[in-house]
Amino acid sequence: EPFVADEYIERLAWRTPGGGSRGGEAFDPKRLLEEFVNHIQELQVMDEKIQRKVEKLEQQCQKEAKEFAKKVQELQKSNQVAFQHFQELDEHISYVATKVCHLGDQLEGVNTPRQRAVEAQKLMKYFNEFLDGELKSDVFTNSEKIKEAADIIQKLHLIAQELPFDSLMDFCSSPHSSAGKYHDLECQLIQEFTSAQRRGEISRMREVAAVLLHFKGYSHCVDVYIKQCQEGAFLRNDVFEDAAILCQRVNKQVGEVFSNPETVLAKLIQNIFEVKLQSYVKDQLEEHRKSDAEQYLKNLYDLYTRTTNLSSKLMEFNLGTDKQTFLSKLIKSIFISYLENYIEVEIGYLKTRSAMILQRYYDSKNHQKRSIGTGGIQDLKERIRQRTNLPLGPSIDTHGETFLSQEVVVNLLQETKHAFERCHRLSDPSDLPKNAFRIFSMLVEFLCTEHIDYALETGLAGIPSSDSRSANLYFLDVVHQANTIFHLFDKQFNDHLMPLISSSPKLSECLQKKKDIIEQMEVKLDMGIDTLNCMIGQMKHILAAEQKKTDFKPEDENNVLIQYTNACVKVCGYVRKQVEKIRHSMDGKNVDTVLMELGVRFHRLIYEHLQQYSYSCMGGMLAICDVAEYRKCAKDFKIPLVLQLFDTLHALCNLLVVAPDNLKQVCSGEQLANLDKNILHSFVQLRADYRSARLARHFS
């Protein structure tokens, strides 16, 4: 614990008799002083002892430090001596090693010619045995020494090739010539390799393959290995999966057997492609090539895809330097005869299939397609400009049929989608944009021209005239379905065609073709705006049939119980249905454009209709109620101009009931101030009391 002087003195005083007040004992300062003096002396003595002990320890430490330093110096000197000895020993060892290497080189220089001479002597001995016709050496008679015999025969065969022609003929005519033995031994080695492969002895296969490497029959050994590898490998129906498993298994084994595994594996793959796969592909395609184009194209796409997938798996193996080119050539050799005319088969099938889908649909409707409305876009635009009553020949009764089918469209788009997928996979990269454009042209012909365009023409021809009493405006249903179908067409254009042509000159050609199709359809849809005339005609019929002169000039002014006339109710109900139908049939800005046109014509009809009657005071109130209801109906259009027109019309109707004294004030109001005075006058003239001098005077 840390030393605290105050506490130490307190304890000392507490222990001293008379130093405190314990037990009533009196305090004795002298005794306490004496105790303090004695204790101080004891502390001084203790301090001197400790100081002497410290000095003694310091002297001892200095002495030991000097001895340690002296010892370290001696060790350093010993280390320097040892290092010098080590350097001398290292130099001596290097000198001896140099001498030994030199001596080894000299011995090798002497021993190598000696060994060659011994080997040459042995070869001469074996050569003599062949010349004598008797093979006595154990190496030729012992079947276990086939490896040594093979090495000797290989060397003798090379020597025999260098003999002069006469000597060579004499040698070959001997009963046991090296050439015959060479062939026999080669056959034995191949047989031994075959047996080892069947037994699964990898080490023996490796030994025999190493011996055969210098023989001419080495390639035959590889062929035998490839043949036996495939025995029992193709037992399932999926030849591609079997091929992948076989190559995976052989890839692990071939490196343990052959010194050139990449060459052997490449030869195996080439054999699989040229024999197994080519035969399988031919069987699958030739069966349907002339009889069933659809199945032929499906099989071709499937087989080509599976072959390229197999090629991708084989890319993982070591097949040499340019394995990509190697595998591509193998695939091309299998499919070249089928890919050359692929696009012709594709277009022919697509044309036949699309025509069949359309014909089957029209047959289900008991409809015979007819030629309706020929002419280009300019002709259509001219008909729009002139606003004629659809000069498309006699009106056609479609019985509510739009002649557009979602099922037909989906089938056509699905067939085209599959065609684009096959085109992407099977076309040469240089021909891909051109082939994709041809498929797109087929889609335009059958979907846009033969189906959508025909339905629009038929729908236009079926629009009733403006004075017809028919209320069946099926053309809006045609517009709605055509709009939906074209969205699907546009989606396929972006999703499946664009990736195939995006970086080629065909892109602008496709976009222009699509633009022309859109423009042609929009022109025909614009022609359908004449359905608004039919709507207005229907409203006229309702007003003519339901509106009575007594509605606005009742016989009993005090007994009018209705809020608005029956004609107003029916017209508003009809208009609301047509507005809802237009919104359902169109989208985007087309909705606002058509509704604005309909709203303006609707306003003109009501305006002209109201001017056909004379209004009493109560009749004018009823007319105001009718216009108020028409204005509510106009709000459904959500077109500011249409609502403004009906607001003004409502304000004009107020002139039918306002007191004569207030006519000028009402006419100068905000809504009527900008109107022509003749218009205001025409409405005031409709009042039953207009003939009164007072009213005429006030308005003038």
Automatic annotation (TrEMBL):
UniProt KW Coiled coil keyword: yes
Top-rank taxon: Eukaryota
Coiled-coil segments on the chain, per record: 40-78
GO cellular component: exocyst
Pfam families on file: Sec10_HB, Sec10_N
One of the protein's GO biological processes: exocytosis
Residue ranges annotated for the Exocyst complex component Sec10-like alpha-helical bundle domain, each copy included: 148-699
InterPro entries noted in UniProt: Sec10-like, Sec10_HB, Sec10_N
Keywords: Coiled coil, Exocytosis, Transport
Domain Exocyst complex component Sec10 N-terminal, residue spans: 29-137
The UniProt record lists the keyword Transport: yes
Family: Belongs to the SEC10 family.
PANTHER family assigned: EXOCYST COMPLEX COMPONENT 5 (PTHR12100:SF0), SEC10 (PTHR12100)
The name this protein goes by in its record: Exocyst complex component 5
Organism, as annotated: Eudromia elegans (Elegant crested-tinamou)
Lineage: Eukaryota, Metazoa, Chordata, Craniata, Vertebrata
